Each structure stands twice: as structure tokens, then as C-alpha cells.
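Hi Prof. W.,

I finally got the Acyl-CoA synthetase prediction working! I wasn't sure whether to trim anything, so I left the full sequence exactly as given:
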Amino acid sequence: MSSLFPALTGTPADRPALRFGERSLTYAELAAAAGATAGAIRDARRVAVWATPTMETAVAVVAALLAGVAAVPLNPKSGEKELRHILSDSAPSLVLAPPGGELPAPLAGLPRLDVDVHATGLVPDDSGLDEATPALVVYTSGTTGPPKGAVIPRRAVTATLDALADAWRWTGDDVLVHGLPLFHVHGLVLGTLGPLRRGGSVRHLGRFGTDGVARELSSGATMLFGVPTMYHRIAEALPQEPELVKALAGARLLVSGSAALPVHDHERIAAATGRRVIERYGMTETLMNTSVRADGEPRAGTVGVPLPGVGLRLVAEDGTPITELDGETVGEIQVRGANLFTEYLNRPDATAAAFTADGWFRTGDMAVRDADGYVRIVGRKATDLIKSGGYKIGAGEIENALLEHPGVREAAVTGEPDADLGERIVAWVVPADPQSPPTLDELADHVAGRLAPHKRPRVVRHLDALPRNDMGKIMKRALTHD
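And this is what came out:
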């Protein structure tokens, strides 16, 4: 297998690689810093990475991949319960973190290595590593129970990034700007490792803002990655920000992912800038599956066509493949290819359940296909996955957290449409004391402290009882906000 980052040694030394705010590293500086960190962790099996939106996170993950060590990105906003589960499940040898930053209690017993972005070391040759070697273990919210660790092999990273390079005509001349978190696939694999594999550069905003987008796209950046919440805020700001209009109009590629971008926002951006946002479709377990191509039709509401090397089919409820490309026949998306994860860590039962007997991964997403092969996702097979602000959130873990509150007797969680977030989290609660039900702020703080702030409910509705079927299962379809 070839190196994951041939550009580290094959790119002009003074070429910009990373920029986070006022801090930046050239390819020579990144190679030296990653080489030093790789040397310090080469004997580890797995390392946790305190994945703040900083230079140190990028250097740490590049170092781990060069050393052939699996990196486990940790969301810095995770609650202690979630962190303890991830650390217990993944058993990392140490945690890589920025110097001086305080880490929460669950990490107290783990050896810590501060990442020095100015250190110097030799770049290890990773070209001899097996393509099946784990690159990342990324924890994904299931619909029930604690998060599962998806083991992503090196071949999945290279297959996805090279397929996107083909689809998007992505080269070393591209400069990517984004403000995405670095603890999941979108910001870390696509938004950080992607430019570095191509020999291009990435400018991370630290915190997303339309002023930062305008500044970077007006000063050399060619591509913007975002989630629908970000593009919604861009669409809202365009009438008042002529510099933003001009900046977006000059971009080579605007890409949205992690959830569907509403057609209204597509049209507002296109009308103001003359540029159309393209969408792609992926999951933690599969990395990227489809995309609208740079040379294809950017059709609002679709996620394009399968990427090179990705097999995609729609199947009916009985598992029969759907052959009609009529834009109407709905089926579950199943995929296979080098882009897939290997397993859920320590969960052979969940891994087996995720695949068909002939090796197709069951995504749980429902879609239709047009006559030209374009895929349009129409919803989840289950009702328990909520896409809010670019995150995929499992209702089950929020329900479990709510049930730990003394004022909650029963709880169910659903999503409902939200113009900004895509979906907002709604908690349906049967209070322990109907005369004194817990407030929204109280429950939101309770959930945010246990899980993460983006998993907090935005709406609470109190009920006398939850609707259940004869088996006692909550009938979520009966929970409506009308």
C-alpha cells in the first residue's frame, strides 16, 4: 500500500499545509512535528486524541496514521458518562492533547502526551503498512444504548479521499476552508486528511462564522465544506453581506454534508451568488458513498451518484434489490466497497447485524433513484436517528439520560423540522410529579452534562402517559407536535 500522505515528503517544503487562526504549518513543519509525535507513540496500539479544533489535533492524527496506530478522536464536549464508556471500550494507551489544556476526570488515569507542533522528527515510512490496519475508531450514536466504535481501516480513508478527488477534481492547488469539529468524519477525514493527502492546504476557522468564510474565500481559498446549519446561516446573511456574496461566487466548490440541505437554502444561495452547493452522502461506518460531481448537475435535494469503487443498491423490505430507477420507488440504501468500516469494536453481534449475508452494509437510510442514477434520500428506516446541526444523534441515549433525572418518570425523544438545525430534539416527558414538571432548561442542562451540548433537547412536551403498543413499546409515530 502507498503512503497515506505522499505530499508530506513530495511537496515543496514551504507550501502551506495547515492554518488555524493565526497559527500555521508548512508541509516541512507538519512532517517534522508529525514525525516527532509518531516516534513517541509507535509502540501504542491505540491512542485517544482530545479533538479540539486546533493544530495539535491535526498533527496528532497524522502522526498516529504515520505510525500505524489507531486514533480515537474524543469530542471535548462529551459528558463524563460518554467519555468513560469510550475509554473503557477502546482502551487507548495514552491521550494526545494540546499543551496546557485541562482534561476531564475520566482521562485522569491515562498517560498524557502533549503535542508539540514545533518538534522535529523523521517521517516514518507508512507505505508498508497493511491496508486493513485500523486508522481510526470513531464513535457513532446508535439508536439505543451507548455509542459504538466504528473501526475504520486505512484502505477506507484512501479509497474515500481518492474517490472524492476524482468526483470533485480535487488537487493540490485547492485550499479548503471550514469550521467543522475534528472528532468525526466530516471535519477530520474529509476536511483535514483530505487536503493533506492531495498536497493542498486547509484553513480552519476555529469557530464557524460568515465573516471568516468571506475572508478566506476572498483570499485564496477555493473550497468550502459545511453542514446545512452553516449554509442556512450563510443564506440568511447574504442579503446584508455583499462581501460574502462575492466570496462565495468566486469559490470553485461549495460542499454540504452530514444531513440534507433544504431546497430553500439551495435556491437562496444560488440566486444570490450564481454558485450551487453540491451534496454528498456518507456515514461514519462507510465514509463517503455518493456525491454530486464537480462536472455533474448540482441538483438540489439529491446526493448525486455512487463514488468510484462504491457499490450501491436499494432493497425492498424483504431484501429484494430494487431495479426501478423511476425517482419514486423507495428502498433502503445498501453499500459495499473499500470505503467500509471493518467492525464495531468489541461488538461482533452489532457488526454481524449490520451486514447482509453477501456483504452489503445496511445503512438504514431510505432513498429513491432517478433514471440517471442520482440518489435522493427520503428518510430513515427507523425513527430514532435525529440529524441536528450536522450531527447524527441517537434518540436512545438521550432517553436514557433523561430517565436519570429524578423529575422524569418516562421519556421518549423524537426530531421535528427546524429551519436552522435541520431537526431539533424534542423530549416527550411524563413527569414524576405532574404538579412540578422539570423545565426545558433543567432537562437540557442535565442531558448536556451527561452526553454533549448538541444532544440536549430544544423542546420539552409534558404528557400524562406515553403511547405504547401491546408489547409495551413506545409508538413514536403517535407523538406529533400538532
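The longest helix spans residues 27-41. Does that look reasonable to you?

Thanks,
D.
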